[in-house]
TrEMBL record:
Alphabetized SUPFAM superfamilies for the sequence: S-adenosyl-L-methionine-dependent methyltransferases (SSF53335), TPR-like (SSF48452)
Record-level Gene Ontology MF annotations: S-adenosylmethionine-dependent methyltransferase activity
Protein's name in the database: Methyltransferase type 11 domain-containing protein
Gene3D superfamilies with a match to the protein in the record: Tetratricopeptide repeat domain (1.25.40.10), Vaccinia Virus protein VP39 (3.40.50.150)
Signal peptide annotation: none
Domain Methyltransferase type, first and last residues per copy: 138-221
Length: 318
């Protein structure tokens, strides 16, 4: 509930009188600079005027002051994610679908999933300056454990986005904090142009029917690097295992992904790791390898997944 002292500001907002609303908020914040409601209102006023960067800073400050303030989390989600579509009724988005990690603490998350996020977080940590002022997106974040890993290990701010309302609800309970917010959104959606310092999207692109549109949407929203992972067609052949990957649309060769990133995004791969997760028999999945073998390695001929960093290369033709 917004305090009574802000009612005149809300009235100005309803009239779209942003100048008066911002003036009144600034005057009050001069006396009570740690008022989270006022900071949030000022962010909303700036967002309504298209002042995205300024709005973002006010909203994150409000969240730092009052991490339990629900409205500011919604406002941050609105800032970055637009024009959402309804989830497909044909897809199972529940936590019980078998496609999602569901543990509410990191010790319960399977090793191969943690390894990918750890690589992304540590790579970003060495390059984000200053980390606490950078914001990234974790697309298809599931129940949110990876978004929290990114924030904790890299020291950055993260907006986690997933199509499952159930997963986002669990994420908001288990993994949100003053640097991590979650938003339910089903692709296709629009991301605010050049609003993000980086993007992480692990085990995601193979779940999207129009993977080209997904890569373009990511690229247009991000000023910095994109960290992706995907199953490799060379070793995890989709046709042979399609019934076991019922939520996938396809797998990729490294050459295919390299070409897509160059053609669609003018990006090149600047870092790459490989990973083995499954035992195979005649090309078919036949259980998991021991946990100790799931760690990332240099890319090898038997790698089943690639984890890559894609960075802008102006020399590439669009």
């Amino acid at each position: 509930m917004i305090a009574m002292k802000w009612q005149s500001v809300l009235a100005s907002l309803e009239r779209s009188d942003f100048t008066t609303a911002e003036r009144d908020v600034d005057q009050e914040l001069a006396h009570t600079p740690l008022d989270a409601d006022g900071m949030m209102l000022r962010g909303v006023i700036k967002l309504a005027q298209g002042r995205i960067g300024e709005a973002e800073e006010d909203l994150w400050r409000a969240l730092a002051i009052a991490p339990g303030l629900g409205g500011v989390r919604d406002a941050l989600g609105d800032l970055f994610v637009h024009d959402m579509t309804e989830p497909s009724p044909e897809r199972d988005f529940s936590l019980a679908s078998g496609e999602r990690q569901t543990a509410t603490s990191l010790v319960g998350i399977r090793e191969d999933h943690r390894c990918r996020y750890e690589f992304a977080a540590l790579w970003l940590r060495d390059r984000l300056t200053p980390a606490h002022r950078t914001t990234g997106i974790d697309l298809f974040c599931g129940n949110g454990y990876g978004s929290r890993m990114l924030a904790d290990l890299a020291g950055c701010r993260v907006v986690g986005v997933d199509g499952s309302a159930e997963a986002v609800a669990q994420a908001s309970q288990a993994y949100a904090d003053h640097r991590v917010v979650f938003r339910q959104a089903y692709f296709p959606f629009e991301l605010a142009s050049r609003s993000l310092d980086f993007a992480v999207s692990l085990e995601s692109v193979e779940h999207v029917a129009d993977c080209d549109a997904f890569l373009v949407a990511l690229d247009q929203a991000v000023r910095g690097p994109i960290v992706l992972s995907f199953p490799l067609e060379n070793t995890l052949k989709f046709e042979i295992n399609a019934d076991l990957f019922s939520y996938h649309f396809r797998h990729f060769t490294l050459e295919e992904m390299t070409e897509k990133l160059a053609r669609l995004c003018r990006r090149k791969i600047s870092a790459i790791r490989g990973q083995v997760v499954y035992q195979l028999r005649d090309g078919r999945l036949n259980g998991y390898v021991p946990t100790a073998r799931m760690c990332l390695t240099p890319l090898r001929s038997d790698s089943q997944f690639a984890v890559i960093v894609a960075e802008t290369d102006p020399s590439l033709s669009a």
